[in-house]
What we know:
This protein has 350 residues and is of the alpha/beta class. The chain folds into 2 domains: 24-162 and 312-340, 3-Layer(aba) Sandwich (Rossmann fold), CATH 3.40.50.2000; 173-308, Rossmann fold, CATH 3.40.50.2000. It is 39% helix and 15% strand. The strands form 2 sheets. It has a 6-stranded parallel sheet with strand order 2-1-3-4-5-6, with helices on both faces. α1 crosses α13, α3 runs antiparallel to α14 (330-340) and α10 packs across α12. The longest helix has 14 residues, at 313-326. The model is unreliable at 1-19 and 343-350 (pLDDT under 50).
Amino acid sequence: MRLTYQGRDGSGERGATVRQRPLGVLLLGSDPGASSPQGSLRRALSRCGVVTGFTEPTDGKCRSRWYRLTLLLNADAIVVLSYGALPMLTLRKLALAAAIGVPIVRWWVGSDVLNCLRMDRVKRSALLLDTLVAANVAVAPHLVGELRTIGISATCVPSFVDDSRENGGPWNPEVARRVLVYLPNTHADFYGADLVGEVIRANADLSFVIVADREHRFAGLSNVESLGWVDEMENVYRRVGILLRVTKHDGSPRMVLDAMLRRRHVIFSGCFPGCWLARTFSEVHERLAMLRTLRGPNDEGRAAAIELLTPPPAERFVGVLREVARSVSVSHRVRAILTALRRAGPRENP
């Protein structure tokens, strides 16, 4: 059976173009929920008129679902987000897609880069996948640099945010003394739970609003309001003046961008325009002391966030997709065919 792809961008490079149709993209990853990076990506692409489908990496099951989604979408590209090593069968499927001219784009958001730096197995899988990848896109400049150290070249497109240009509402002394903390009960150590506990106890005059902690680990402290998981954050942002985010590694966190767009001050463990840098208890404590003296919202942070998000990241990402969809080289297809023909043995499995 011969498959003919109809060019969606008007280029006509995949069969004769009868009419221009929306770009079709298959997303491969995990956790496509509304709050996940994949969820944000799907919403952002949808707003740009891109048709998306979603599938998970497979170890041999659900083959028909993979191929059905690819064919139904008449996919112009496949976007991969993976935090671990991909199964060899999934790599071979991606190789087959690349061999017939469907470009692969690898999207890097933070923890996936860290896992490659720390775990040889994940790094080997990423390097094998990179032989198939037409473009790597990372959400922050420092991630581009980290990927370069393991031999992967990437371009930067900032994180997608559901940007309504909401300015956060009125600023007053009450919101100025409330600190927002994102502390999921899974990977709490990664999100600095011990440091957060020290900060809360050392700043009894401040109120801390904690979201995502379903275990409510600090709910017993008098200056803590533990909300658990929150689906809609807008009302929370209007009640706080500061975001505290101290993680072991980060990309371009959407919560940081959301807070800055709403003129909230941000204490962050990453170097980010419009934020206060702090990585240790003493640094966080010092930043909170300085913020007590401020009399207004973070207008500088809002301006920095708007500049970072202009032009919109979704439009930039779609630009990358359209570019790779127009040009899939013969040498790239040959490499893909060689990867597709590999047999997964016990030593070869990434």
